[in-house]
Amino acid sequence: MVTQDGGYTALTMLRPQTKINTKLEALVDQLERYRPVLTGNPQLTVTGISMNSKAVHPGDLYVAVSGARHHGADYITQALDAGAVAVLTDDSGVARIPEGLAHLVVDDVRSALADAASVIYGNNISVTPSIYGVTGTNGKTTTTYFLNAILAALDYKTGLIGTIETRINGVAAPAEFTTPEAPELHSLVARMRETGVEATAMEVSSHAMDYRRAFGLRYHVAGFTNLTQDHLDLHGSMDDYFDAKALLFQPDRSASQVITINGGAEPQWGQRLAEQCPDAVTLDLGPAAVVDAGASNATWTITECEPAGLGHRFRLRHDSGFEVATKVGMPGKFNVANAALAAVMIFTGHPRHDWNRIAEVLANSQPAPFESAVPGRMEVISDEPTVIVDFAHNPDGLTQALAAVNRTKRSQGGQTARTILVFGATGDRDTAKRPLMGQIAAEHADVVIVTDDDPHYEDPAEIRKPVVEAARARANHLAHAPEVVEIAPRAAALSHAVQLATAQDIILAAGRGHETHQDLAGQRFAIDDREVLRQALAEYGFDTTRSGSSQGTD
Ligand SMILES: CC(=O)N[C@H]1[C@@H](OP(=O)(O)OP(=O)(O)OC[C@H]2O[C@@H](n3ccc(=O)[nH]c3=O)[C@H](O)[C@@H]2O)O[C@H](CO)[C@@H](O)[C@@H]1O[C@H](C)C(=O)N[C@@H](C)C(=O)N[C@H](CCC(=O)O)C(=O)O
Ligand SMILES: Nc1ncnc2c1ncn2[C@@H]1O[C@H](COP(=O)(O)OP(=O)(O)OP(=O)(O)O)[C@@H](O)[C@H]1O
């Protein structure tokens, strides 16, 4: 929310203006399946809920969960000082509850807190906005922006919940998580309802399903982009990662489901999900697929996909024969996949008699819904050299982004043009990704500059090491003999890329996209790849004003 002083109110402070008084005895009834045991006055009422002592409002139910670093029960005093009136916890927290404080003990506190938030903010009884929930390893943010653009073009009052920002009816607030914790999510949905939001596009991360953040809501349409390796630090295995995503597609969580059956480099996961959900609407990416999985009986198929400017024109066909043509402005065939999923989710969320109007919006609105740029997603900073900032931070994302960049390079006809890649791996996350990303970088780039992403609490040099080693090892076996260099800090690496570049080269700065801060041992350092690159371009005498570019990418 933009405040009167022009600053931002954190999402954790965002609450519906109308307070509902919920008696503890009513919560006991609603949470029955978690076998709640109430100690204290059943007539006591709560008006809000928080699982973070620093975000408690007067009248809140404070939820004390056991986490990886802390136990919320250690912060009960802080929560009481801020006005909490009762506590929800499980057996692990009960011993730390002060004498005389009303409390509920349940056996699955993370699931129970999402249901409690739904009750406390009235989302269980009222008509919430229609929520279009998107999950998958890559493409969630882009697909939700596309959904939002179509919904707005269809004249809905819209909301958006995701990695870059939260939007309520055109008003933006910064986002802390891809999917907020359940108390914030439910208060946000209630706030959207109050402000008249009719339809919301929402990213649903696998963390959100694993931690039950996104529970207690029924999604109007759930959409699946793809599944490839990421987040194995949390999920342990691809099977567990898949299971977390699949929760969203259960009929009690989503009214309709749309599954891309050949998204990303590992189409077997989309096919497996479709087998588990026989009533789901399916999407075959056809010529926009990375892996040709052969003929399918999908509900919707992309039948044509041609380069148009930096992006593509494409045609979608329903198995009834209904067709729609549209175009997407962002580079990369994967953005055709994201746009097609958004379109099919909108068709699925509407009755058939609305389809012609939706097709008209997709084909003819100016600007077209998929022409809009998404911050930090294949964002073009300059044309000569072509400088692109992207959020690719896992093996498939990096592969797809480099493939799109290399097609651009080829179509520009430059025999001598080089692809210069600047990227790093994230600390405290899936370490298995690091050598894979190093190999991919060497395979697809001519100059690989390995630097830092968010080191978090790890030593940045130790994070770079396996990336550099794998890139060099792979480079030794490649005919195009890519150069691999290691440069930190990140601003120096970006600047070095520009220093090396000729006007024909392409620079891809991958991994951080829209982000404006790096996390180093809990300290936030300001850095925006886009700004650093613009400054370096000016410093090295390049023109940073964008001309209307017309080269194709595929
Ligand atoms: C792995 C993960 O998701 N961890 C989340 C989890 O942490 P945790 O269980 O370890 O909690 P903890 O820090 O030990 O704290 C335990 C409890 O004490 C409370 N506490 C703690 C300190 C205090 O002063 N007061 C207080 O009340 C905390 O609010 C929490 O309820 O619960 C915390 C409380 O909400 C989250 O902050 C934390 O997110 C961490 C910071 C995080 O970075 N999560 C990322 C990885 C994440 O969720 N990412 C996904 C998307 C990923 C993607 O697709 O790329 C997302 O949806 O954003
Ligand atoms: N459909 C796709 N398939 C493969 N890669 C993609 C796809 N869409 C986007 N990407 C790549 O992944 C990056 C992240 O895209 P986006 O932010 O839309 O995904 P996300 O799922 O929201 O990611 P995160 O969960 O990390 O926020 C992009 O910058 C691009 O490089």
TrEMBL record:
This is UDP-N-acetylmuramyl-tripeptide synthetase. GO terms for molecular function: acid-amino acid ligase activity; ATP binding; magnesium ion binding. GO terms for cellular component: cytoplasm. The modification N6-carboxylysine is found at residue 245. It is found in: Cytoplasm. Belongs to the MurCDEF family. MurE subfamily. Its EC number is 6.3.2.-. Residues 134-345 form the Mur ligase central domain. The keyword Endoplasmic reticulum does not apply. Pathway: Cell wall biogenesis; peptidoglycan biosynthesis. Residues 376-513 form the Mur ligase C-terminal domain. GO terms for biological process: cell division; cell wall organization; peptidoglycan biosynthetic process; regulation of cell shape. Carboxylation is probably crucial for Mg(2+) binding and, consequently, for the gamma-phosphate positioning of ATP. UDP-N-acetyl-alpha-D-muramoyl-L-alanyl-D-glutamate binds at residues 53, 178-179, 205, 213. ATP binds at residues 136-142. Its cofactor is Mg(2+). Gene3D superfamilies: Mur ligase, C-terminal domain, Mur-like, catalytic domain, MurE/MurF, N-terminal domain. Residues 46-118 form the Mur ligase N-terminal catalytic domain. It holds the Pfam family Mur_ligase_M. Keywords: ATP-binding, Cell cycle, Cell division, Cell shape, Cell wall biogenesis/degradation, Cytoplasm, Ligase, Magnesium, Nucleotide-binding, Peptidoglycan synthesis. Catalyzes the addition of an amino acid to the nucleotide precursor UDP-N-acetylmuramoyl-L-alanyl-D-glutamate (UMAG) in the biosynthesis of bacterial cell-wall peptidoglycan.
